[in-house]
Design goal:
8 helices, 2 domains, 23% helix, 301 residues, 12 strands, alpha+beta
């Protein structure tokens, strides 16, 4: 924390550098770049979506977006799945969101986040991001305004673009082997998608322990992948709730590709695997497992 304060650029702050009134969002963004973690910046009310988020709750035009923008939940989860903490800025304070867990609220699925706050302490529960209250003291935080996601420099592709394209491709190629597994899950409201950033070496290393068949493990480990990848997984909600392996398919994207046309490096659906080679040709269809497997992420869905 001392290094952050010492490196802060006083020229982009309002007023006097001493006594300090705290770091601004621009200062924090510049600091993350100095530490080789250039952030992806999200502003409440203007958050991008991947197309699978639930409809926004009704709200008046003048309502603070920190009170209604539920897209925040998906944005946070994409980076937390990747083990990247998020810095949240309110009107007068900033803190880190470092994890989440799936819970129930009024018999409905719910996500509770974990906060680190330098003024209140570590490992604090955030039960409702739109009505953010410290459960220990009942003090209320002001509405969230800004999300800063510090990521490696070569992670150019936005997770929302990866997830949107990955979902479209998985649903399109689902019938490759004539099974239509994903369509059945969509009709039963059981299919969801999970997006993770990771190194390709970690992705390959985990292939053996996920439950993939031997042929798929061999092909994925021999594939030429970018150093960092985005992985979009198709997840069966019911299997996830039961604690069983729940990933039915996945798409692997080059992290340095662009948001308009993300570069697909590998795609797996039940029964088939496709690998893009460096000359642009596709090795397919390669036989793959038809059964659900574990997630490639450090934590299961």
């Amino acid at each position: 924390m001392a290094d952050f304060s010492l490196f802060a650029d006083a020229s982009v702050a309002e007023g006097r550098p001493l006594p300090s009134q705290g770091l601004t969002g621009l200062q924090l963004s510049n600091l993350m770049r100095e530490f080789e973690l250039p952030p992806i910046v999200y502003r409440m009310g203007k958050l991008p979506g991947s197309g699978q988020e639930p409809p926004l709750p009704p709200h008046d035009d003048g309502t603070d977006p920190g009170k209604w923008d539920t897209r925040t939940i998906a944005v946070l989860c994409r980076f937390l799945n990747s083990s990247y903490p998020i810095l949240v800025g309110t009107h007068e304070h900033a803190f880190a969101i470092i994890g989440y867990k799936r819970t129930n609220r009024d018999n409905e699925p719910w996500i509770t986040f974990v906060r680190h706050d330098d003024q209140r302490g570590p490992y604090l529960w955030v039960h409702d991001i739109l009505n953010d209250t410290d459960a220990a003291t009942d003090d209320t935080y002001s509405p969230w305004q800004l999300l800063l996601a510090p990521v490696p420099e070569k992670l150019w592709l936005l997770p929302e673009a990866a997830e949107r394209t990955g979902r479209e491709l998985l649903l399109r190629y689902d019938t490759l082997e004539g099974t239509g597994t994903f369509k059945d899950l969509v009709d039963a409201n059981r299919l969801t998608f999970r997006t993770i950033a990771m190194s390709s070496s970690e992705y390959k290393e985990k292939a053996t322990d996920r439950g993939l068949n031997v042929e798929s493990v061999k092909e994925l480990r021999l594939a030429r992948l970018s150093r960092l990848v985005w992985v979009v997984e198709a997840v069966d909600r019911q299997a996830r709730s039961n604690g069983s392996p729940s990933v039915l398919g996945e798409v692997v994207f080059d992290s340095t590709s662009n948001d308009v046309s993300p570069n697909v490096l590998a795609l797996r659906v039940p029964g088939a695997l496709l690998i893009r080679q460096t000359n642009g040709t596709i090795r397919s269809p390669l036989l793959s497992t038809t059964e659900p497997v574990s997630s490639a992420a450090n934590s299961q869905p």
